[in-house]
Amino acid sequence: MRAYDVILKKRNGLPNSHEELKFLIEGYVKGEVPDYQVSAWLMAVYFNHLTPEERFDMTRIMLESGDQISLSEVNGIKVDKHSTGGVGDKVTLVVGPIVAAAGLTMAKLSGRGLGHTGGTIDKLESIPGFRTALKKEEFFKIANEVGLVVAGQTATVAPADKKLYALRDVTATVDEISLIASSIMSKKLAIHSDVIVLDVKVGTGAFMKSIEEATELARAMIDIGKRYGRKIGAVVSDMNQPLGKMVGNALEVKEAVETLKGNGPEDLDRLCRLISARLIELARGVSSEEAEKMVKDVLESGEALEKFRSFVIAQGGDGSVVDSPESVLPAAKGTMEVLSSKDGYISYIDAEQVGISSMILGAGRAKKEDAIDYAVGIEVFKKLGDRVLKGDPIARLYFNDEEKAEKAKELFLEAYKISDAPIEPPSLVHEIF
């Protein structure tokens, strides 16, 4: 077999067989197929796309290139959720305790933040003592004892995807839906959960900018998951503005705790309840109404909040973060308010730019090697459709470096547009699968 023939076939719009894809991808990982030939194939895929069978084959090949984590030693029904990334997205910190309190087990691998999107691991590590580097035996032990464990992703999971993604990044082929779907699912399926719910973000702060693209991506990932024998669902949720009010690691942990106490922002609370209920519905085979009631019960009884405490303690963190997050979590030295320049209505928010403003403060990474400042971030006061008067505070920046704060403030102001006429805010949820 020659790489040339595999490329030619895809360039001509024909599907590649499993053997051809395996030859190309494994050859590239081993250094036997040069990057310029794989680049040519990626560009052919960009224009001709992958069939559902090719997507599944590619996912399986990348998945099998590295370690897989069997959860056979973990009790109960194992569930997982995945977000395609957004601004202020602390959903895992709320959903995990809810589903664990409802009797399911979430044994999850999560990533760190890069660019404008925050990572679950960074948020959790803002809790003093919290450990995300766990040995396999410890991971299983916490899963069985608490029903919730979150560890950092390892380089040994789907290494072929990591190498291919780096090539996609420099060849302008990242934003092709079948490649995105295969990439995400190769990592998600490497840990053997019974049930998966995907939170596919759409809007100015998301990778997918249109509802049509986000829906297509959700369907592609569901198809791969079902072919792999998993129970899988998805939610297409809005990211045309930050989720909740807080953007930044310790700030988001505090907001997650408040949400578990019943005091969270309406949008965050609603999305977390929906995703939790969808996981319970798929795992238990109950109606959506029954699942929603189970979510309501564990929140109102305080069981979900106590599950969060147990989870934090089991992974070495300070459990009193549940009682008084302000005294436990790192705090920024200074704050700065961002004021409205005119009267009107918030008509547009570039959520990605809000995320970048937070990154400039130190809450995110421009490069993988960058250090995180857990204390800094942004509190958003005004969202889409809100009325503002000139001089009203739109947001508050939490900073440890005043020079960075001034840059972040300037960028944040550019992210907001104020119009004279009121607008209808977008729906929080666009599709449920």
Could you provide a short overview of the structure?
The protein is α/β, with parallel strands linked by helices. Helix content is 47%, strand content 16%.
Helix content: 40-55%
CATH level-4 homologous superfamily of the largest domain: Nucleoside phosphorylase/phosphoribosyltransferase catalytic domain
Q: What is the element string, with H for helices and E for strands? A: HHHHEHEHHEHHEHEEHHHHHEEHEEEHEE
Task: Categorize the overall geometry.
Answer: globular
Please write the CATH class name of the largest domain: Alpha Beta
Q: What structural class should be given to the helix and strand makeup?
A: alpha/beta
In spatial order, strands of the major sheet run 3-2-1-4-5-13
**In CATH terms, what is the fold-level topology of the largest domain?**
Pyrimidine Nucleoside Phosphorylase, Chain A, domain 2
Summarize the main sheet: 6 strands, mixed
Q: What is the second-level CATH architecture of the largest domain?
A: 3-Layer(aba) Sandwich
Number of strands: 13
**What number of structural domains do the residues give?**
3
Number of helices: 17
Radius of gyration: 22 Å
Tell me the fraction of residues in β-strands, as a range.
Answer: 15-25%
How far apart are the termini?
40 Å
**Can you tell me the residue ranges where pLDDT is under 50 for at least 5 consecutive residues?**
none
Question: What's the average pLDDT?
Answer: 96
